[in-house]
Design brief:
The complex is a heterodimer of chains A (452) and B (462). Chain A is of the alpha/beta class and 452 residues long. Helix content of chain A is 42%, strand content 15%. Chain A contains 19 helices and 14 strands. Chain B has 462 residues and is α/β, with parallel strands linked by helices. Chain B has three domains: 17-154, Rossmann fold (3-Layer(aba) Sandwich), CATH 3.40.50; 164-275, 3-Layer(aba) Sandwich (Rossmann fold), CATH 3.40.50; 288-456, Nitrogenase molybdenum iron protein domain (Rossmann fold, 3-Layer(aba) Sandwich), CATH 3.40.50. The radius of gyration of chain B is 23 Å and the shape is globular. Classes of the chains: A alpha/beta (452), B alpha/beta (462). Chains A and B meet through helix 1, helix 2, strand 3, helix 3 and helix 4 of A and strand 1, helix 1, helix 2, strand 3 and helix 3 of B. Strand 3 (88-89) of chain A pairs antiparallel with strand 1 of chain B.
Chain lengths: 452, 462
């Protein structure tokens, strides 16, 4: 079989075309040393899952570098505190590496508690903290006893795995082991749920929450967007978990199902039809006739509200092509939303996908779509040059690779500028996509000076 | 009680050594930086660099994982060198270590030697190791060590050239351009260590995705041994200058960053001293224009309080400059502990008759506490200062690294007389936007709150 693009022999099977033999690429393998990988470390994975907990301090136990480039980058919004945005580090020095950093960690936790009285202090282990053998759990336990503040160890040594998926799980484990089930709700209703894997990037949660509440459902907690640690502590009393980011948070939902018998359903609020389906599925789960009726009304008015509001964008976007190269979830959850604005997904890929992620992508895309695993920057550039999509959806590191090739780009990751979820979010989505795809600036590069 | 905290760093004002190393390497032609460590080291760094420069940034990783941590990183480093040699074939691979590989004790020099031996007779890139553990120093030291490693491994003595080596330190591509323009005006042949001016402000073209075609060449780095002298315009980036002086008797000078009138004068005087150059009319005219701009601005800038944070040479340079403008430095903060920095500030304070609070080894929490205490009418520093500025209701003049929430970071120019004119105009216009009404009158506190409120929403330029 012809390889999708020219690359290292061992990398060729990480790319495939749906419907042509192999429909799921080889995945979940270590990146090749020496390439410019778009992946990050396990610490990064844990941090992005937990960082949106707004009333908490996120303390990085390691040398300054681990904290210096990762604070306040989640793009996750808060309706309350901004404690989670602070970049806290134990700033380990050479003598700490030699003699151990436990004492410094202990003092730092005490100091941060004194300064901020946070809902919790999450302590993240970095590569070095792991290698020098600091007993973070013991320090957390001791300082929790002294301060009375929740001090939660996150065993996220960066080198543990070849991609950050394991970091997502470690972040979820910290919640399962130290937070969930540690507080009882004052009141419960038959319609209590958690929204799992919604990180409120650009305020997405705020497009979903009112719809769900209007249905008559009580949201105990969001895990973890715009959340307080005490809310997550009560999440074990929910009757249902709805899972938005299935990449990072299916793991948590499965564990909660096992431990607390909470069933879960996968939802997707990107795109109109997906939003409608998700709302209906939630209502069907509870099977309450009145709720089902209410939900239909919500859907009707939601659709009415956006009717014709995207026509102008759709007209320009119709028939245009798009490539997705993202962390995970958006590789499948955005496909229908793009179809609704008339665009064709011709490539979809992830940096950290595992087999179940690629199965989901395969289900979502049509035959002929290129499916890509862990493309490094050279491969990404080759793919873009070969397929020339009208738009690339990816993150900050990929942005200028795309733009320098003259391919319009939208950052749907940490630097997204507007909320896309729910009915109204769909208008912002279409508007933002149009602003990139249809901008005249991309034609300028085909002009030339007289005399050229 | 915890106002002067002792243990935690909250909102750091420094980055790690490998970050400084990469910043230095981005100015070298046909070079691949390789970080020997976990993937996060290179990826988060690229994220930070790319959102600042708005250019693609390529940094390879040896992608260490659990197994390689237990058995040592030799296999991954050898494999990385092989893959880069085969696929990118750069002229130079610069390998920087990370906390992880330093702590597990990987012998990078030995591994690189082993790689060379295993590939005897093959056409290999030059490979140089730089030791950059993040727990011993910051991006400032990382930059310094990397420039030193470049000359240490690559400089070859032959015939004297009479050129001047300039070590820029970590400054913007536009400022590297400014330094080059000054040297051109003076007709001073030079070698820039390292020249990011083209690489990090590239036109829209596919070629920007390849290894850099611009920047300091390996040949030029080799030739630094034959220059007449080296000037490190960042005092904290002078290791290579000292090395070249000891080893090849190339005169070494390190001067203040040429920010503002006096420091730019010092730089030009230093060049003239080394090379017996004539100062051309163009530079004299630019100097006159800067003084003219400062005079134009004086009534708006006089005795305005300023807080500055960033790299040590930037902070001390800017502190002197704003003092020349009649402004008062109240808080000066840098992330690293440095005697050179505190000495510089002491000299400036004595010269200008001010007594600012100096935070060396400080973070943005400390900076914020001091601003609350001492006040500031304007904050000068990178984008991380935005939340302090918002909370204190003062404008932020964005410069330094990183600037990710405004466009044009690669084009912020503050050096030389011409960069100085930019600074004067922008600081003054920022003050005008913030503290004066549309008719040009200063908004006083007695005025209606509506007017004051309205003026909060004027966006300042970077």
């Amino acid at each position: 079989m012809e390889p999708v693009i020219e690359t290292f022999e061992s990398r060729k099977k990480h790319m495939c075309v749906k419907g042509e033999g192999l429909s799921i690429p080889v995945c979940d393998k270590a990146s090749l040393p020496g390439t410019v990988t778009q992946r990050t470390c396990v610490y990064g994975g844990a941090r992005i899952v937990l960082m949106p907990i707004t009333d908490s301090i996120h303390l990085v136990h390691g040398p300054i570098g681990c904290a210096a480039c990762t604070w306040d980058i989640r793009g996750s919004k808060s309706s309350r505190e901004d404690l989670y945005k602070k970049g806290c580090s134990t700033d380990l020095q050479e003598k700490d590496i030699v003699f151990g950093g436990e004492k410094k960690l202990f003092e730092t936790v005490l100091e941060l508690n004194e300064l901020y009285k946070p809902g919790a202090i999450f302590v993240y282990a970095t590569c070095v903290a792991g290698v020098i053998g600091d007993d973070i759990k013991a320090v957390c336990k001791k300082s929790e006893e002294i301060t009375g503040c929740r001090v939660i160890p996150v065993q996220s040594e960066g080198f543990q795995d070849h991609n950050k998926t394991k970091g997502h799980w470690i972040g979820c484990d910290a919640l399962l082991d130290y937070v969930i089930g540690t507080k009882e709700p004052e009141t419960t209703t038959p319609y209590d749920i958690n929204i799992v894997g919604e990180f409120n990037v650009a305020g997405d949660l705020w497009g979903i929450k009112p719809l769900i509440e209007e249905m008559g459902i009580n949201i105990i907690s969001t895990i973890t967007g715009d959340s307080h640690v005490d809310e997550i502590a009560q999440s074990h009393r929910a009757k249902l978990n709805i899972v938005q980011c299935q990449k990072s948070s299916n793991y948590l939902a499965q564990k909660m199902e096992k431990k607390y018998k909470i069933p879960s359903i996968k939802v997707n609020f990107f795109g109109l039809q997906q939003t409608v389906n998700s709302l209906r599925e939630i209502a069907d789960f509870f099977g309450d006739e009145e709720m089902i009726e209410r939900t239909e009304k919500i859907i009707e008015s939601g659709l009415k509200e956006v009717e014709h509001k995207t026509d102008e964008y759709k007209e320009r976007l119709n028939g245009k092509t798009v490539s997705l190269y993202v962390g995970g979830n958006k590789a499948w959850s955005l496909v229908r939303a793009f179809e609704e604005v008339g665009m064709d997904v011709i490539m979809s890929g992830t940096k950290n996908g595992i087999r179940e992620d690629y199965e989901r992508i395969k289900e979502a895309v049509r035959d002929g779509t290129v499916i890509v695993d862990d493309a490094n920057s050279t491969e990404l550039a080759r793919l873009l040059k070969k397929y020339k999509p009208n738009l690339l959806i990816s993150g900050a590191k990929e942005k200028y690779i795309s733009l320098k090739l003259g391919i319009p780009f939208c950052d749907f990751n940490h630097d997204r500028i507007s909320a896309f979820a729910g009915f109204k979010g769909f208008i912002s989505f279409a508007k933002e996509v149009d602003a990139s795809v249809s901008s005249p600036v991309f034609n300028l590069n085909y002009t030339s000076l007289k005399g050229d | 009680m915890y106002n002067h905290k002792k243990f935690s760093v909250i909102n750091p004002s420094k980055m790690c050594q490998p970050m400084g190393a990469v910043q230095a390497l981005l100015g070298v032609k046909d070079t691949m930086p390789l970080i020997h460590g976990s993937q996060g080291c290179s990826t988060y760094m690229r994220f930070q660099l790319t959102r600042h420069f708005r250019e693609p940034i390529e940094v390879a990783s040896t992608s260490m994982n659990e197994k390689t941590v237990i058995y040592g990183g030799e296999f991954n480093l050898m494999k990385a060198l092989k893959n880069i040699t085969e696929k990118q074939s750069p002229q130079l691979i610069a390998v920087t270590s990370s906390c992880l590989t330093e702590t597990i004790g990987d012998d990078m020099v030995g591994i690189i030697e082993k790689f060379r031996e295993a590939n005897l007779g093959k056409d290999l890139p030059l490979i140089i190791p730089v030791s950059t553990p993040s727990y011993a120093g910051s991006h400032v030291e990382g930059y310094d060590k990397t420039i030193k490693a470049l000359v240490e491994h690559l400089a070859i003595p032959s015939h004297p050239t009479g050129k001047i080596n300039i070590i820029t330190g970590n400054i913007s591509p536009a400022d590297v351009g400014e330094v080059k323009d000054i040297l051109k005006d003076l007709q001073c042949e030079n070698i820039i260590l390292t020249d990011t001016s083209e690489n990090l402000d590239a036109p829209l073209s596919e070629s920007a995705l390849d290894l850099y075609d611009g920047g300091t060449t390996i040949g030029e780095i080799g030739d630094t041994a034959n220059s007449l002298g080296t000037i490190a315009i960042s005092k904290h980036a002078n290791l290579a200058a000292t090395f070249l002086e000891k080893k090849f008797a190339v005169k070494s000078e390190s001067g203040p960053l040429p920010v503002g009138l006096e420091n730019t004068d010092s730089f030009i005087n230093l060049l003239c001293k080394l090379k017996e150059l004539e100062v051309p009319e163009t530079l004299k005219r630019d100097r006159g224009r800067l003084i003219d701009a400062m005079v134009d601005a004086h009534s708006y800038t006089y005795h305005r309080k300023v807080a500055i944070f960033g790299d040590p040479d930037f902070v001390s340079g800017m502190a002197r400059f704003i003092s020349e403008m009649g402004m008062i430095p109240t808080v000066l903060c840098t992330g690293i502990i440095s005697k050179r920095f505190t000495d510089d500030i002491r000299t400036i304070s004595e010269d200008k008759g001010f007594n600012p609070v100096v935070l060396a080894g400080g973070d943005l929490y400390d900076l914020h506490q001091q601003i609350k205490e001492l006040g500031a009418d304007i904050l000068i520093g990178n984008s991380y200062g935005a939340s302090i500025a918002k909370e204190e209701n003062i404008p932020l003049y964005r410069t330094g690294f990183p600037v990710f929430d405004r466009l044009g970071a690669q084009r912020i120019s503050i050096l030389g007389y011409r960069g100085g004119i930019n600074v004067v105009d922008r600081i003054t216009n920022t003050l005008l936007d913030f503290y004066y009404d549309e008719a040009g009158y200063e908004i006083t506190e007695e005025e209606s709150p509506e007017i004051a409120e309205e003026n909060l929403y004027v966006t300042e330029e970077i």
